[in-house]
Amino acid sequence: MMRFRLLLATVLIALASPTWAVQPDEILDDPVLESRARDISAGLRCLVCRNESIDESNADLARDMRLLVRERLVEGDSDTEVMSFIVERYGEYVLLRPTTDGVNIILWVAAPVLFLIAMLSAGLYLRQRGSAPEPTKGGLSAEEEKRLKELLKD
Protein backbone atom coordinates (compact mmCIF):
# COMPACT_ATOMS: atom_id res chain seq x y z
CA MET A 1 0.00 0.00 0.00
CA MET A 2 2.85 2.37 0.85
CA ARG A 3 4.53 1.69 -2.49
CA PHE A 4 1.29 2.46 -4.30
CA ARG A 5 1.01 5.80 -2.52
CA LEU A 6 4.61 6.63 -3.33
CA LEU A 7 4.08 5.73 -6.99
CA LEU A 8 0.87 7.76 -7.10
CA ALA A 9 2.60 10.78 -5.52
CA THR A 10 5.47 10.52 -8.02
CA VAL A 11 3.07 10.38 -10.96
CA LEU A 12 1.07 13.35 -9.66
CA ILE A 13 4.21 15.41 -9.13
CA ALA A 14 5.40 14.57 -12.64
CA LEU A 15 2.03 15.60 -14.07
CA ALA A 16 2.03 18.85 -12.10
CA SER A 17 5.38 19.98 -13.49
CA PRO A 18 5.19 22.62 -16.22
CA THR A 19 5.01 21.34 -19.75
CA TRP A 20 6.81 23.16 -22.48
CA ALA A 21 4.57 24.61 -25.12
CA VAL A 22 7.28 25.06 -27.74
CA GLN A 23 6.13 23.29 -30.87
CA PRO A 24 8.53 21.19 -32.96
CA ASP A 25 8.18 23.56 -35.92
CA GLU A 26 9.44 26.47 -33.75
CA ILE A 27 12.69 24.82 -32.68
CA LEU A 28 15.79 26.22 -34.35
CA ASP A 29 18.27 23.91 -36.07
CA ASP A 30 21.22 25.51 -34.26
CA PRO A 31 21.27 24.16 -30.67
CA VAL A 32 23.16 27.21 -29.38
CA LEU A 33 20.56 29.61 -30.77
CA GLU A 34 17.75 27.37 -29.49
CA SER A 35 19.29 27.39 -26.03
CA ARG A 36 19.52 31.19 -26.10
CA ALA A 37 15.93 31.40 -27.31
CA ARG A 38 14.77 29.17 -24.42
CA ASP A 39 16.68 31.29 -21.91
CA ILE A 40 15.11 34.48 -23.24
CA SER A 41 11.63 32.94 -23.47
CA ALA A 42 11.79 31.77 -19.87
CA GLY A 43 12.11 35.40 -18.74
CA LEU A 44 9.21 36.75 -20.80
CA ARG A 45 5.63 36.81 -19.50
CA CYS A 46 2.74 35.56 -21.61
CA LEU A 47 0.38 38.51 -21.87
CA VAL A 48 -2.62 36.20 -22.13
CA CYS A 49 -1.81 33.74 -19.34
CA ARG A 50 -0.22 36.37 -17.08
CA ASN A 51 2.18 34.53 -14.75
CA GLU A 52 3.42 31.93 -17.22
CA SER A 53 6.46 32.38 -19.36
CA ILE A 54 5.96 32.34 -23.10
CA ASP A 55 7.97 29.11 -23.11
CA GLU A 56 5.25 27.40 -21.04
CA SER A 57 2.16 29.00 -22.58
CA ASN A 58 0.02 27.53 -25.32
CA ALA A 59 -1.57 30.89 -26.21
CA ASP A 60 -1.30 32.14 -29.79
CA LEU A 61 0.31 35.38 -28.64
CA ALA A 62 2.97 33.43 -26.73
CA ARG A 63 3.70 31.42 -29.88
CA ASP A 64 4.05 34.64 -31.86
CA MET A 65 6.43 36.02 -29.23
CA ARG A 66 8.51 32.81 -29.26
CA LEU A 67 8.76 33.02 -33.04
CA LEU A 68 9.71 36.69 -32.82
CA VAL A 69 12.50 35.90 -30.32
CA ARG A 70 13.86 33.17 -32.59
CA GLU A 71 13.58 35.40 -35.65
CA ARG A 72 15.58 38.16 -33.95
CA LEU A 73 18.25 35.65 -32.84
CA VAL A 74 18.59 34.27 -36.37
CA GLU A 75 19.05 37.85 -37.62
CA GLY A 76 22.05 38.14 -35.32
CA ASP A 77 20.71 40.17 -32.38
CA SER A 78 22.26 39.66 -28.97
CA ASP A 79 20.17 38.51 -26.03
CA THR A 80 20.03 42.07 -24.68
CA GLU A 81 18.92 43.44 -28.04
CA VAL A 82 16.18 40.84 -28.29
CA MET A 83 14.92 41.63 -24.77
CA SER A 84 15.03 45.38 -25.52
CA PHE A 85 13.08 44.85 -28.74
CA ILE A 86 10.40 42.78 -26.97
CA VAL A 87 10.12 45.28 -24.08
CA GLU A 88 9.90 48.19 -26.53
CA ARG A 89 7.16 46.41 -28.43
CA TYR A 90 5.05 45.00 -25.56
CA GLY A 91 6.04 47.15 -22.57
CA GLU A 92 7.96 46.36 -19.41
CA TYR A 93 5.09 44.25 -18.09
CA VAL A 94 6.28 41.46 -20.39
CA LEU A 95 9.31 40.85 -18.15
CA LEU A 96 8.81 38.19 -15.49
CA ARG A 97 11.57 39.88 -13.46
CA PRO A 98 11.05 43.63 -13.74
CA THR A 99 14.05 45.94 -13.72
CA THR A 100 15.14 47.62 -10.49
CA ASP A 101 15.88 51.04 -11.89
CA GLY A 102 13.86 54.19 -12.48
CA VAL A 103 10.35 54.28 -11.08
CA ASN A 104 10.37 50.53 -10.43
CA ILE A 105 12.69 51.07 -7.48
CA ILE A 106 9.63 52.35 -5.59
CA LEU A 107 7.91 49.00 -6.12
CA TRP A 108 10.94 47.05 -4.95
CA VAL A 109 11.51 49.20 -1.86
CA ALA A 110 7.89 49.83 -0.85
CA ALA A 111 7.09 46.35 0.50
CA PRO A 112 10.07 46.06 2.87
CA VAL A 113 9.65 49.65 4.05
CA LEU A 114 5.93 49.17 4.72
CA PHE A 115 6.71 45.93 6.56
CA LEU A 116 9.21 47.74 8.80
CA ILE A 117 6.72 50.53 9.48
CA ALA A 118 4.06 47.95 10.40
CA MET A 119 6.45 46.12 12.73
CA LEU A 120 7.51 49.39 14.42
CA SER A 121 3.88 50.44 14.83
CA ALA A 122 2.98 47.07 16.33
CA GLY A 123 5.96 47.26 18.71
CA LEU A 124 5.03 50.77 19.86
CA TYR A 125 1.41 49.75 20.33
CA LEU A 126 2.36 46.73 22.42
CA ARG A 127 4.80 48.78 24.50
CA GLN A 128 2.15 51.44 25.24
CA ARG A 129 -0.44 48.79 25.96
CA GLY A 130 1.89 47.07 28.43
CA SER A 131 2.55 50.29 30.36
CA ALA A 132 -1.09 51.45 30.43
CA PRO A 133 -2.74 51.50 33.85
CA GLU A 134 -5.00 48.57 34.59
CA PRO A 135 -8.70 49.30 34.53
CA THR A 136 -10.40 49.47 37.91
CA LYS A 137 -11.66 46.14 39.06
CA GLY A 138 -14.37 47.50 41.32
CA GLY A 139 -18.02 47.13 40.43
CA LEU A 140 -20.67 49.78 40.38
CA SER A 141 -20.89 52.33 43.14
CA ALA A 142 -23.97 52.30 45.41
CA GLU A 143 -25.39 55.29 43.59
CA GLU A 144 -24.89 53.61 40.17
CA GLU A 145 -26.53 50.40 41.39
CA LYS A 146 -29.55 52.36 42.65
CA ARG A 147 -29.87 54.14 39.30
CA LEU A 148 -29.56 50.83 37.43
CA LYS A 149 -32.34 49.24 39.49
CA GLU A 150 -34.59 52.22 38.75
CA LEU A 151 -33.95 51.91 35.03
CA LEU A 152 -34.61 48.14 35.05
CA LYS A 153 -37.99 48.59 36.81
CA ASP A 154 -39.35 50.69 33.95
UniProtKB/TrEMBL annotation:
Any matching Pfam family: CcmH
Domain CcmH/CycL/Ccl2/NrfF N-terminal: from-to ranges: 11-152
InterPro entries the UniProt entry points to: C-type_cytochrome_biogenesis, CcmH/CycL/Ccl2/NrfF_N, CcmH/CycL/NrfF/Ccl2_sf
GO cellular component term of the entry, any: plasma membrane
Keyword annotations of the record: Heme, Iron, Membrane, Metal-binding, Signal, Transmembrane, Transmembrane helix
GO molecular function: metal ion binding
Transmembrane segment boundaries: 105-126
Keyword Heme: yes
Biased composition range(s): Basic and acidic residues: 143-154
Residues annotated as signal peptide: 1-21
Span list, region Disordered: 131-154
Keyword Heme included in the entry's annotation: yes
Listed Gene3D superfamilies: Cytochrome C biogenesis protein
CDD domains hit by this protein: CcmH_N (cd16378)
PANTHER family: CYTOCHROME C-TYPE BIOGENESIS PROTEIN CCMH, CYTOCHROME C-TYPE BIOGENESIS PROTEIN CYCH
Family indicated by similarity: Belongs to the CcmH/CycL/Ccl2/NrfF family.
Function noted in UniProt: Possible subunit of a heme lyase.
Protein's UniProt name: Cytochrome c-type biogenesis protein
Organism (species): Roseinatronobacter bogoriensis subsp. barguzinensis
